[in-house]
Each structure stands twice: as C-alpha cells, then as structure tokens.
C-alpha cells in the first residue's frame, strides 16, 4: 500500500519531499492531522508526515532548478494505482543510500522506502532504507565491493580540507540512466 489517504494533484501525481527522516506532503489548511509551520520564506505551510512509501519504483531521474539539482523518484502503488513522486537533494545522504541499494531492488515487486535520521558517533546522518519481501535491501555499491563507484575525494576549499562526492554522484547518475531508465 502507498501512503494512506492520498489526494491526487497535478495529473494524478502526489508530490512528496523528504525531510527530517520522513516523507512530507503539503496539504491545505484545515486538513486533519496536518502540522503547520512557517517555512524559510516566511510562508505558513501545512504538512502531513509519513514513515514509509510502498510501491514499484517506476522512474528515477534528475532535475535542476533555481534551488539546485535533485533526484526525482516516481513510485506507483498497486494498492490504489496512485503515483507518488518524491525529490531528494542530489548530493545528500538520502540520495546516496537510496541509489547504492537501488540495483538490488526487484523493480517488478513492491519495495518499502523509509527515510530516517541515524545517529552515529554523535553525528546525524540522513538515510533511506529499502525493504522487499520482508528483508532489508543491501547496498550494491559498498566500500568492500564498490562495483566501479569512485571513492570520495579530499579537496581543499577556501583553505579547508573537505570531502567531495562529485565523481561518485556523476557515476551513480550515469548508472541510473543506463540501468533504470523506466517509464509507465
């Protein structure tokens, strides 16, 4: 089953975002169980939060906007034939963990997609866990078996050493384009 009590918008697609370890759907003021907040631009928004999304991954693409580059994932729920679209920042823990496991997903059956915030060594990390047939979907690209995925690179930016994932993300994008160019 996909998200519960879904409303269709814009051609039958329900749009979601991923934030603070949850799927988030913007709704109208007065929607039962919606939480209101003031966003970065000072506008009051109303949102519902979900712990997971279940369906078939149908499409994974990228897009660029004035806010940066994003991964766009479309999932179709066989439970209600609804299409859900969620976006993740291009270079994020959510995207990296999702894309590292995606090659091990059987695209013909439901997968449960669950964003989370994981605490490790006093640091918070955003991740997405995938489950299929009651089992966790393991990463296809790992440190022990990178399957061609480049390592992070140390670079100096404004005098500070930092980790750069440019080559890694470009690799994952090319991999997704070649192996998962799916449509409805």
Compute the average pLDDT. Answer: 90
Q: Tell me the distance between the termini.
A: 18 Å
| Main beta sheet strand tally, sense and closure | 10 strands, mixed
Task: Count helical runs.
Answer: 2
Q: Which structural class best describes the helix and strand composition?
A: mainly beta
Could you state the order of secondary-structure elements as H and E?
A: EEEEEEEHEEEEEH
Number of strands: 12
Q: In a few lines, what is going on in this structure?
A:
This protein is mainly β and 184 residues long. The protein contains two helices and twelve strands, in the order E-E-E-E-E-E-E-H-E-E-E-E-E-H. The chain is 12% helix and 47% strand.
Keywords for this entry:
mainly beta, 10-stranded mixed beta sheet, 184 residues
Describe the structure.
This protein has 184 residues and is mainly β. It has one domain (13-142). Helix content is 12%, strand content 47%. It has 2 helices and 12 strands; from the N terminus they run βββββββαβββββα. The strands form 2 sheets. A 10-stranded mixed beta sheet has the order 3-4-2-1-7-6-5-8-9-10, sandwiched between helices. The longest helix is centred in the C-terminal third of the chain and has 14 residues, at 166-179. It is globular, with a radius of gyration of 17 Å. It starts with 12 loop residues before the first strand and ends in a 5-residue tail after the last helix. Residues 4-9 have low confidence and may be disordered.
């Amino acid at each position: 089953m996909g998200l519960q009590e879904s409303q269709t918008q814009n051609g039958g697609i329900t749009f979601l975002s991923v934030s603070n370890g949850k799927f988030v759907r913007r709704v109208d003021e007065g929607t039962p169980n919606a939480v209101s907040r003031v966003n970065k631009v000072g506008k009051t928004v109303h949102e519902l939060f979900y712990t997971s999304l279940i369906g078939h991954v149908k499409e994974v693409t990228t897009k660029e906007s004035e806010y940066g580059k994003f991964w766009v994932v479309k999932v179709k729920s066989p439970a209600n034939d609804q299409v859900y679209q969620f976006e993740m920042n291009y270079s994020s823990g959510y995207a990296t963990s999702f894309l590292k496991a995606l090659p091990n997903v059987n695209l013909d059956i439901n997968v449960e997609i669950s964003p989370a915030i994981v605490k490790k060594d006093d640091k918070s990390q955003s991740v997405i866990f995938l489950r299929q047939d009651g089992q966790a979907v393991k990463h296809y690209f790992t440190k022990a078996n990178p399957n061609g995925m480049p390592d992070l690179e140390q670079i100096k930016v404004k005098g500070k050493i930092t980790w750069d994932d440019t080559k890694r993300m470009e690799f994952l994008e090319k991999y997704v384009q070649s192996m998962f160019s799916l449509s409805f």
